[in-house]
Structure formats: structure tokens, C-alpha cells
Amino acid sequence: MKNRVSTSSLLFLTAFLCVIATGPKLSAQTTSQPAVQTFKESERKPSKSDAYTRSDRRFLVNILRINHNETVIAQLVAERATTREIKALARQLVADLGEANREGRLLAEHKGIPVPESRSESGDLKSWNEKKPENLDQDYLNRARDTLEDLSDLYEKASNKSDDPEIAAFAKKILPSVRKQLEIAGQLVPVHP
User: Fold this and answer.
1) In this predicted model, what pLDDT tens digit does every residue of 38-89 receive, in sequence order?
2) Contact between residue 134 and residue 141 where contact means Cβ atoms under 8 Å apart
3) Which of 73, 65, 60 is nearest to 164 (CA)?
4) What 8-state DSSP symbol labels residue 49?
5) How far apart are CA 167 and CA 3, in angstroms?
6) Residue 50 CB coordination number (10 Å)
């Protein structure tokens, strides 16, 4: 009995090895897909929504970082500013940049673009929190102007040069709001009460 089990086990093992050795050839003949894929064939092929250029990725990552940081600072300034005009500008930037950040993050997710976690630069926030009230308004206005100019340039470039129609459309949608806030900031002269 032991010899029969050993013989049958040996026959089974031989048959199994033959199937493995010829399996891919047989399955390739019976199906249109090979049974065993090579490493390259098994890699996930990017979908159309995953196709993006390095400049598109850099654009989204940059504006998300800038929008987040500026929103956090604008929230602080909206509470601490001494003039109505600067408080109003800061509140509007919180709303506009917050919305642009939300839409940009959704677009990045849709495109499969990895975006770093939003974190505020604590040193920057601390310095804004420690500013003297008499300096806060003018310093923030200068920062807002510089930031809005940078954002305007980034959105303009993406709206004109992005190869991705969704990223270009997003940039075109946000650009007028950024330009409007830049124009308002350019006309403001803080008047202390």
C-alpha cells in the first residue's frame, strides 16, 4: 500500500509539474490573455485621469500650499487687524483661498496627483501672532499683495500652458478672483482708527 501511495503521489507530482511547465502555453491558446503576466504587464497602467505633467503637479502642489498657508494667516489677521479694510480683505481671502484650496485638492485627487498634507508653517504663524498691532495691518497688506501677485502668475501660467484641460479650466476659473483681490489690495491704504 505504501508503494502505491508513493507511486500515485509521484504520478500526481509529475502531472502537476507538466501542467505548470506547459500551462501558460495552453492557457494562451485557449484564452486571449496569458495565464502568467510578466512584471511590466502586471503594472497598473495609468488611466487618462492619471496623466499629468510635472509642471501641472508642481502647479497644484504650490497653489495648495500657498492657499493653505495664506488662509491660516488671513484668519489670524481678520481677528487681530486694527482697520476695517484689512479685516475685510483678510476675511475675503479666507473665503476665496479656502474655496480655491478645496477645489484644487479635489482636482488633485481626481488626477491622482499626490498632495502633501496641509500644514501651517508654525514659525510664520507665530511671527504673525506676535506682531504689534500698529505694524500688523501694513505688513499683512504687503504680504497679501506679494502673495496675490505670485498666485496670479501661477494661475495665469497654468491657464495658458497646462496640457490638461481640467487643470487649465480650474486655473481660468480661479484667476479672476485672485486678480480682483490683488486689485483691491493694491488700492488699500490702511487707516488706523
Assistant:
1) 323 333 334 444 467 899 999 999 999 999 999 999 999 999 999 999 999 9
2) no
3) 60
4) G
5) 72
6) 12
Q: Which residues contact 63 (CB under 8 A, 6 or more apart)?
A: 100, 101, 104, 151, 154, 155
pLDDT digits (tens, 9 = 90+) for 142-190: 999 999 999 999 999 999 999 999 999 999 999 999 999 999 999 988 6
CA 62 – CA 172 distance, rounded (Å) = 16
Give the integer Cα–Cα distance in Å for 125 and 72. 8
Residue range 105-138, pLDDT digits in tens: 999 999 999 887 777 666 678 888 899 988 999 9
Report how far residue 155's alpha carbon sits from residue 111's, in angstroms, rounded to the nearest whole number.
18
Rounded CA-CA distance 85/103 in Å is: 27
Tell me the three cell numbers of residue 117. 498634507
Other beta carbons less than 10 A from residue 22's beta carbon: 10
Q: Which residue has the cell 491657464?
A: 159
Position 191: which residue type? Answer: V
Distances from the Cα of 146 to the Cα of 55, 57, 98, 181, 182, angstroms: 22, 23, 18, 12, 9
